[in-house]
Every structure is written in structure tokens, then in C-alpha cells.
Amino acid sequence: MYRIAFIEGDGIGPEISRATRVVLDALNARLGIKMRIIDVEAGDSALARYGRALPEHSLDTIRGSDACIKAPIGESAADVIVYLRRVLDLYANVRPAKAYPGMRGLRDGIDLIIVRENTEDIYSGLEYDIGSDASIAIKVTTKRACMRIAEYAFKLAEARDGKRSVVAVHKANLLRRTDGLFARCCREVASRHQSIRFSEMYVDACAMNLIRNPEAFDVIVTMNMYGDILSDEAAQVAGSLGMAPSANIGDTYAIFEPAHGSAPDIAGKGIANPLSLILSAGMMYEWLASKHNDARCAEASKLVEVSIRSVLSKGIATPDLGGRSSTEEVADAIVEEIKRG
């Protein structure tokens, strides 16, 4: 039996969490997957109750589970997900951007993945004041981190039914030491994966080309801050940040979460889009299938994708996607598609 830690989050988090759990129940029932969902306290409510956004008992529960699904968290988000990425060494942030029926994307054929190094770079939090009128931030870049994120990206490109290409995105023309190290590591890894077409692109050029020719990309591998920015851009280019799932993956553990925030302005209105979290759950099934050689989980991942495409093609969507359906109605429609198989 799989033990899945579930953080319901803040803002719209509880609403889209309920919708996702309905879908999980339908998938597990249809395919005979044994799964126990374990609620985990984390986020703003945990901070108010315990004085910590991620209490020690919650971390223990996560460590004892097979994987974690995390809905968006409010003001304390960094104290939860950034900490978990570091303590669990979840070095690969994987962000698909894909065109779906009815989305107002720039192109119909968009199907790319951004692989973002998740543990260092300028996001290491090493910031210091110099006197009273200047500050500095240290951009941490290690060969170990660069090599393993590059290796992950190339293996992903080999496994995808895509264009079998990897683009390394950096700014090594100006940041010659840090980004230069990243670029050299990507070239070294590329030399061991001759079946994958490899190229490099400066981050500003990549931002432009994601708009000009997004369907040309397959796998993008990049550093932490660049990936954070480019992945949001790619999601909107494909149609909506509300359709953007993500995974934080390490060698033995993974956390799956939507790319968007907690949207407190629409919380409680029943109109929040649950698809990003449901797609993230689909990524979890895919990861479990790969880790445990579980064909049922592989089928569950495919069913999530097929069912969401079918629902969207029928015009069933929340208002942010141009529809008139509620969060619950979208989830129920997906469940019906799953039952039909």
C-alpha cells in the first residue's frame, strides 16, 4: 500500500484538495491501487497553531510516506516547500507546459518540460548587508548539482516521445564562473547521450523564443532562478498557469504541487481551478510507476491526462479557463470520465 502525505494548503488549497482526492479515490477504485492518504499540517494554519509552518510531526509524517501531494500555501510557502526541497534533497523541479483543448495558448503543439535545478543558485538564501546602503546575494553553483540536474534532463528526454532534444539555458557570457560551470557540466553530460540533440541558449533569448516558437522546445534544463521565471512564462504561453503541474524530485522521494499560488481572493467561492493539482497527482502516479515498476500507476497517470483532455474538449471548465463550472463540477466530470475508462 502506498502512503501518500497530503498537505491541503491555504486559500483555495482545501477546495482543490477535496477535488483532487475525489479523483484519486476514483482512480484507485477503478485500477485496484491500494493507497492511504495521510493529512499533514503545514502552512499558515500550522504557523498560527504551532508557531512553525512545518511542525516536526508533519516532517516526520512526510519522511514516512512514499510521496507527498501539496496544495498551494499562503504567506509561509517558503518555510514549507523551500525547506522540504533542501532537507529531502529534491534537486529536480520538473514543470511541464502543454497545450490542452480550449486553452488560449499561443500555439496548439506546445509540449515541453522545464527541468530546474532546485537546491542552490541565488535562491540559497545567502544574502548579506554591507553597511547600511548595500546588500549582496551569493549565487551558489556546484559541479555536483549541475551534473545531476543535467543527467536528469537527458534521461527525461530519452524517455519522452518528443523531439529528443535538450536545451541548456544560462547566461555564461556574463556569469562566466557560475553559469559557466553549469554550461560545461551540461556539455559533459551531453557527450554521453549522443541520441539526444543538445544546444545552448542564453536565458534572455530563451524567454523570447518561448513566445516566438514554443513548440520547438522539448526539454529545457536550467538553473534555479531562471527556471522559476521561465516555467511561469511557459505555462502562460501554453494557456494558463492554472494548468501547470510540477514535481520536486530527488533520488528516493518526491513532492507534487501546482505551480500557482493560494489565490486567497477567490477562496471559498467554489470556482478555483483544480486541474493543476490533479495533473500534479497524475505526475505522482507516473513517478510511482517508474520507481516501483507498477503498471497500474502508469495507467492511472494516463487516465488523468485522457480524462482532463476529454472534459476540457466538452467545455467543462472553471471561469479562469473561460468556463462556467465549479471546482466540484469539474472534479465530478473527471471522475465520470475515469469510470468510463
UniProtKB/TrEMBL annotation:
Q: Which InterPro entries match?
A: IsoCit/isopropylmalate_DH_CS, IsoPropMal-DH-like_dom
What range(s) does the Isopropylmalate dehydrogenase-like domain occupy?
A: 3-334
What does the record give as EC number?
1.1.1.85
What are the GO MF terms of this UniProt record? 3-isopropylmalate dehydrogenase activity; isocitrate dehydrogenase (NAD+) activity; magnesium ion binding; NAD binding
Q: Which keywords does this chain's UniProt record carry?
A: Oxidoreductase
Its BP terms in the Gene Ontology are: isocitrate metabolic process; tricarboxylic acid cycle
**What is the name of the protein in this document?**
3-isopropylmalate dehydrogenase
The source's domain of life comes to: Archaea
SUPFAM superfamilies associated with the record: Isocitrate/Isopropylmalate dehydrogenase-like
According to its UniProt record, which protein family does this protein belong to?
Belongs to the isocitrate and isopropylmalate dehydrogenases family.
Gene symbol of the encoding locus: leuB
Task: Say if the entry is tagged with keyword Oxidoreductase.
Answer: yes
| Keyword Lipid metabolism assigned | no
Query: One Pfam family name from the record?
Result: Iso_dh
